[in-house]
Predict the 3D structure of the following.
Amino acid sequence: LGTNHVRNTFKQARAAAPCIVFIDEIDALGRKRGEGLGTTGDRDADNTLNQLLVEMDGFDPSSGVIVMAATNRPEILDGALLRAGRFDRHVLVGLPHREGRRAILEIHLEGVSVDPNISLDSIAARTPGFAGADLAGLINEAALLAARRNKSIVTSAEFDEAIERQMLGLQHKGLVYNDKEKRIIAYHEIGHAVVGALLENVDPLQKVTITPRMLGSRGVTQFEPQEERNLQTESELRDLITMTLGGRAAEIVFCGEATTGAQNDLAQATKIAGDMVRKFGMSPLGSRSYEAARQALISSSVSAH
Ligand code: ZN
């Protein structure tokens, strides 16, 4: 994309009015100016953005051309793009909530033969954080699995496996642990599960497995989220830390010493504890935040390592 391309696009738009110019992934061309290293590429990018700003300023509101753009990274856009007369109306399209996910599943299931006993509510409940494209991919994956198994309809077994694949990655069939390692991993996962089950603020246990996954996890303990969360309480965060450290604790109690398997857990627990002190004012230091406010942290209750 260069200045000529921008100029031509808007020329065509004026000729075709009334019309809509839609720029997908505008962050690729609308990045803050002057932040590169001053290379030729950076200067070209800055010039392209300048041309876009010039074109947008040149529009008469009655010209019949509407300019729209989409981005996943609004924070890196140049401020000039968002000023009045340019992209001055912003619509946030967030991730779908449970009801929305159910509706999206229904749309993508049209034309797919599905076991009538399948509960879409349950699939929607188990897929927090999935975008529309993820849900479409999930159904596609489940349908492929059913076809591979010579089934005429997609059953809950395929959906279960497809959800797992999307959340945890493919099973790593080539990775084999010796018996001692398997025992340690099993104790580690059960440590998460038992500690989680004993805590008031941890979701109900859904699944414990020591099947290794391509994304690098040795085992997984999953808790089923009960509802959408936008806030987390101090006691929920404390319980999450406790559950996260349950794997390491079980290693020490049942296998006699710690292993390297808890690295991700320790990193996660440290992050939550650090955020509680630095961001959320949940420590004896008092109600103060040492970091600029950002989007709230919502930690997931999946413990994978
Ligand atoms: Zn763990």
Q: What stands out?
A: The first strand starts at residue 19 and ends at 23. The radius of gyration is 25 Å.
